[in-house]
Amino acid sequence: MNELSRLQHSHVVTAACQFTEQVPHARALGIQVVSVDRDQVRMRLTPQSWMFAQEDTKEICTSLLYSLADSAGGLAVIAGAMELMPIATLDLRMDYLRPANGDRALLAVATCRHLTDQVAFIDCDIFCEADSELLATAKATFMRNTHGQQFHSDGLKKNSV
After folding, report:
1. Residue 161: what pLDDT?
2. pLDDT tens digit string along 43-72?
3. Of 5 and 93, which is predicted with more confidence?
4. Sign of CA dihedral 47, 48, 51, 53
5. DSSP characters for 51-80?
6. What predicted TM-score, i.e. pTM, was given to this entire model?
7. What DSSP element (H or E) covers 125?
8. How many CA within 13 A on the CB side of residue 114?
9. pLDDT at position 43, please?
10. Crossing angle between the packed helical segments 3-17 and 62-81, to the nearest 10 degrees
11. Structural domain boundaries of the chain?
């Protein structure tokens, strides 16, 4: 990795670490960034009782898996491009393999498979962190360089032109 790439990657990692501070939805759910690599992001969601589909079960509401996959996928776009930019989810399809049990943390592993100038293609797997059991798979596309509010690694928000 050359010096410019190293610097860009450093800014992406810094932004990823600040993700839950800058994105209120992720902060409210307690989503945590575990790791950021060149084109892959790992994020954790530790379930809480209010996240259960029904009070008498410990099955996690499926919408939370969508939020986790969307968050991890969005960061994977930024990691893959090694550039901070505004993005928007175009499409997110989830295939469920089994219910998510609420007594164990979930781990999303999102990988940027392909980047064009305008669109990023993401694969995301969601596991039960304790035993690496695959719970769901997702495919997503994201629009890159959308107009709107931008986030920077210094934590400041700036409006796009």
Report:
1. 41
2. 999 998 888 887 787 899 989 999 999 999
3. 93
4. positive
5. GBSSTT--BBPHHHHHHHHHHHHHHHHHHH
6. 0.82
7. strand 119-128
8. 6
9. 95
10. 160
11. 3-159
pLDDT at 6 over 60: no
Phi/psi for 105 (5° steps) reads -65, 150
| Integer angstrom CA distances of residue 1 from 4, 7, 12, 30, 40 | 8, 10, 15, 33, 16
The Cα 161–Cα 144 span in angstroms is: 15
Report the sign of the C-alpha dihedral through residues 37, 86, 112, 115, in that order.
negative
Q: Which of 123, 101, 102, 104 is nearest to 112 (CA)?
A: 123
Per 3-state DSSP, what percentage of the chain is helix, strand, and coil (rounded to 5)? 30, 40, 30
C-alpha–C-alpha distance, residues 62 and 92, integer Å: 13
CATH class of 3-159: alpha beta
In the block, which residue shows the tokens 């409210």? 28
Sign of CA pseudo-dihedral 120, 43, 105, 132:
positive
- In this predicted model, which residue has the larger pLDDT, 87 or 158? 87
Instruction: Return d(Cα 79, Cα 13) in angstroms, integer.
Output: 8
pLDDT of residue 12: 67
Residue pointed to by tokens 């491009």: 81
